[in-house]
Amino acid sequence: MKIQDIMTRDPSCVTADASVREAAQVMKREDVGIVPVVEGRSDRQLVGVVTDRDIAIRCIADGKDGTCRVRDVMSTDDLATCKENDDVGNVMDAMRTEKVRRIPIVDERGSLVGIVSQADVLRKTKDTSRAGETVERISEPGGRHAQ
Asked: Which one of 7, 9, 18, 122 is most buried, by most CB atoms within 10 A?
């Protein structure tokens, strides 16, 4: 099975110039905890992601308000991504290794085309044993983002 078979296509996104309030409004409207950050709305070149936790820790906890910019709170370093034509196993491996619940999906140019969540993996894959192991490993302490 390919990632394109389970991914959410064309997810909502923001640019780095957007306010965190705008990103939070996307999260509320879409009922998600992550929003991909793109260079521009037309080319959708992925430059980062912003999570509800990023907003809470890097904005609100530091005394900033919703007008601070996404660029000031987003994650950009070594983003784990996959390609839509990759096997679903690749996205499960990335989730387990990085201990993240969502992976942006990009095309060969690095433009955002989709996103896969752990729920997509659980509900849409046939390898339920491997999907369960992936979710279990995601929940273990550690990973690059734990620091």
From this structure: 7
Q: Which two tokens stand for residue 102?
A: 């969502």
Confidence band, pLDDT 50/70/90 cuts, at residue 145: very low
What tokens does 113 get? 């085309």
Q: How many Å apart are CA 97 and CA 75, to the nearest integer?
A: 17
Sheet with 82-83, strands from edge to edge, namely 8-9, 112-117, 102-106, 82-83
How many domains does one find in the chain?
Answer: 1
Q: What is the pLDDT of residue 4?
A: 96
Instruction: Give the closest residue to 3 by CA, choosing from 95, 137, 99.
Output: 95
Q: How far apart are CA 116 and CA 98, in angstroms?
A: 14
Whether 71 is covered by a domain: the verdict is yes
Residue 95 lies in a domain: yes
The residue among 96 and 13 whose pLDDT is bigger is 13
**Which residues sit opposite 112 in a β-bridge?**
106
Q: State which residues form the domain around 69.
A: 3-142
Q: Return the CATH number at 98.
A: 3.10.580.10
How is residue 57 annotated by DSSP?
I
The answer to whether residue 143 scores a pLDDT higher than 70 is no
